[in-house]
Amino acid sequence: MKKVLGITGLLILLAVGTAYSQTTVADMYSYYLPYFTELSGTWTGLGLRNSDSAEAAHVSVIVYGQNGNPAATTEKILAPGGQDAFVAGSGKGNEGWIRVNSDRPLTGLCFFGTTGEGSHMADITLIPDLSKILHVPHVGQNYQWDTAIMVCNPNPVAASVTLTFRDKDGQAISPRSYTIPADGSAAYNVSDLTGNTEYVNGSVELSADQGIAAFALYTDLKWNKGMSFAGISAVIPEPQAQGESYEYYLPYFTEGSDNWTGLGLRNSGDSQNANITVTVADQNGNASDPIRKVLSSKGQDAFVVSSSSGKEGWIRVNSDSPLTGLCFFGTTGQGSHMADITLIPDLSKTLYVPHVGQNYQWDTTIMVCNPNASAASLSLTFRDKDGQALSPRSYTIAAGGSGKYKVADLTGNTEYVNGSVEISADQGVAAFALYTDLKWNKGMSFAGISAVSPMYETGDGGNADYPRTGNQDFKVAQSEKSDPLFGFRSSAPASNLLSSKQDYAANLPNVRDQGSTGSCTAWATGYYYKTWQEAVEEHWDKNQNAFSPMYLFAMQCRTFEEPYDMTKSWEILKRYGCARLITVPFKEYESWSDSDEKRKYASVSLSDAAHEEAKIYRSGEMARFGSLSEVRQALSSGPVVMGINRYERMPSDWSPSPERNYLSPDSSNYNGGHAILCVGYDDSKFGVGAVKLVNSWGTQWGEKGYTWIKYPDFDDIVLYAMSVKDLPNPKKPSEETKKKPDAPSDVRATDAAGPYVDITWSNVSNAQYYRIFRAEIGKSSTYSEIASVYNTSYRDFPEPGIVFYYSVVSYNDIGNSDHFASDTDAKSYVDRGSARGNTLLRPKVLWISNDDQEMSSSFTVSNIDSGAEAMEVLVANSSDGPWDSFGWIEPDDFDITWGNDSEYAGKKPFVKVIVSNADGSSESSDPVQVGKVIASAVNVASVYSFTATPQNTSVRLSWTSDGGNADFFEIWRWLAAEDEGNEWVLIDYAEGGGTSFEYIDKGSLPGKDYYYAVCAVYQGAYSEFAVTDDPVKIEVGQSSNLYLYDFGYDYGEITNPVTFKVVVWNDGASDINDYSLVIWAYDWNDGEIYQLSEIFPASYAAKTGQLPLRAGEEHVLSFTFNVPDEFADGHLYSWGIEIDASRDIAELYEDDNFLWSADGWQMSSGWRRSAKESSATKIGRARLFAPKIDITSRKKEENFVGPIRFKKPSFCIDHAE
Questions:
Q1: Which helix (H) or strand (E) holds 1116?
Q2: 118 pLDDT band (50/70/90 cuts)?
Q3: Which of 294, 449, 905, 919 could form a disulfide with 936, with the two C-beta atoms 3.0–4.6 Å apart?
């Protein structure tokens, strides 16, 4: 029988085409396979298993050519726990790589090889993580062996990649650099790195400017009928921890006259030798004498391993430095074969072999080792492609021993072209699966993969009885000491002014399961809470952009001796932020103790890309709530993280009726420390009221993962509750930032929803910040600014019972969206809102002093209403906000203890207070600024010699530090102005480390002047900000640009002539001899825009010397104008000024030439200059030509010309009047 396409033998049962509906795959889990081939005589296939036993997986397999162009897409639906194997390809004869996207976690591999008789096959396990640094721990390049390294770049931009060969002593040969296209791949021969020199062993380092994945293929096909065709994925090097020991496992070893086993090991340590012990044990657990090796820093060795027993078994590798490496085993002589096993660093009680084949062509054998001091009970279960299980087979492995199990024994006489095997044990084991077709018509395939731990699986989380918790390290007394208002706390009154229910569940990501891990704090604080916050800020999909509990928990285990504490999750969010789940998927490591689990998660490899992403999504201060009434009030703003204990334990499959879906107190369950997210409340639930919780124990628990705590049980179960401030994310540049932002749409203000008004609006993509304006309805007052914020929501505390208009205006470096003096809620960016309740006296707060030793600030409060029962303290970096609630205290004088890692350390923040009782509240006090910079005992680097230098298309920032600590630096930018009316915008972060730093800002606009500020951040603590002394700008060549900076005008009831002062900047590179102006009016009665004047030249209003307006100068045109009689009609108008109205000047930016007035004006008919009917006709948007005599320049001293004047801003800007 002639051998056909290699994988076709595996897939013969799939010959009948299966139709799949087109499925949209949520981009939640991404995996990478660095090599794909369908060149003539080759093939590539995939074997994928759905790790979720409860939900189907919608999978998208995308094949890319080496040039980055997608070549083919295959959609699959895998049943819960199901598997599929299939050929991948486009039929175009491409080489390239494969991306696998799935909405459920997968395990799996690809196989590729040659066709025909004597064909070969190698495997690549799914790679879930990209990295900028990778190691191929062993390569051979000589007369017998060739090594090729396949690299894929799954990024939207080209990647620069450097490959460096190191010999066995760790000495580097000249590196070779390459460029891989966006979404492209390449194959590199090690012979190109080594030249003509032969190396029997060595290693290769890969470094890139963004995350990549790679695979190394070893072949000896050129040598005397060699048949070896095997390889391993490049690995992410493990960070070295001082004093740590490292252990690795290789589940199979063989030796004898026809077989051999070798090892290739590389020292990943950068600075010390690795002392290594290699121990071979036979299947009965009898260990041979150890082999000892010393590897130099970055050094490598490859050697044959022998036990002198001629038996099969397994290998244990111990080292005092982290290693990467593999073992190779195979047959001897001509036509020999070889397979590889990568070092396995972790044991697990649950393992998957994601693909097996057992039929007339293929055999699969599973090798399992038990590195424990007692015998292990083992169960192997075969599952078919639909996830259906055959009867499991049980085995016992001797202490320190191993076993070898044929899949044929699991399947009986039935043939299966594909399926998977689950391995479960009563203690941690490691395993490997070997695929061979040697029995079939001169088959030559000899390859395999290590069994893998499931990344995430719904169900019982590894415990059939009760799920794990993970808040056991939490101590109330210790956490209270970090409370900034500790010692002054008081329960807020049970407000009668809140809505009767609140529920944020619809805005949360899908309920998931923490499994058998103690990671509940990371799920509650990171996955649920942080995802909710960022979805609100970024207006993105809550599931596709969910945040990673894996990143948060791994960082907790790395950073803290006691990581099982909800406040430790907050500390990580504050110091380092959190990466998204798509970047760091959750993986469950089974363990036997908290210390074992902590060690495993602390050693999880987190890529540079994950850390860089995490910095973008950081959190600020924490506010603590001590009572049900405070939690209800906090829930009016968003979810609340809660620590619970002393509740009745519920099994993993607890599925109560809706009437019984609540936690009950149980004082005996004092070890049930658990963290959950409180997502709402309902005052009528269960007849007594209850708060709603989302849990991390899967959808099969409670009511689709949710449950409640009744109000009467709150104090018995809830230990601690907190909210965490979301810090603004950096504003990344885009082409849209060169245009004035649109007005926010869908502005909504709450009406009598509580003792506050919540204003929300849609995101404007090119807005850098927003300002909120307020005007009382029914009065002739115009809008006044009340706040400036970076996100799309704000809470106002106006006088209760009064209805206001709220207008939201978006801003960027070009200008701001429209906003008029008498906007009403007919505009999409305006809505009416009101607070309810009784009005209490407005308190006054004053700063008294700072205590540097205690890191505290003292405040005194006066004018406190006699009926006030509580006082809320709010803090901000600017008097315009956004405001951070620190919670409620007694209405009296108070201290704030900031803490060394406070985001306000190194600054002079603003503080205001609001007093309240059950039926009313006050307006917030005027903000007061802390009069002295808050000192910190943390050794945060100080910034010196901060300069900004314009380049051709960017601004280069450089600074030095005093050598203090810095995890990173925050970089802020401020559009230069004559006052401090603009806002600082966070643009990016720069890495810490060292004493000299540089950053290139590519987002500043040419021709615009900017100040910059930078500060160091270490463990959440801030240094003082350094601000550049002078503004800088990118020159614009010969481009011209006028900028209408501001204008003054008459407002209210006016008479002719009216006065204007128009401030115009020339921030281009060319002198402007003259330019045109026009005056507009917006009529609030009919909503029309009218042109009041004809277009006139600036020279008509200018004094001698004001023109030409030279580059880098500004002038003030002060002139009078007679309003045409048609507008003396008593209507309310807004002024509009436009420069370069005739578009005579080719400008760099056209959107900065127009401004509307903030105040309105009106003129009665009695001020008409000629007798006309009061119904005189106006022509909308048409010219109403006024005689030129109506434009008259005022006296010279009121006009100005000179260099553009800038005021250097401080970082904390006081906008309060």
A1: strand 1113-1121
A2: low
A3: 905
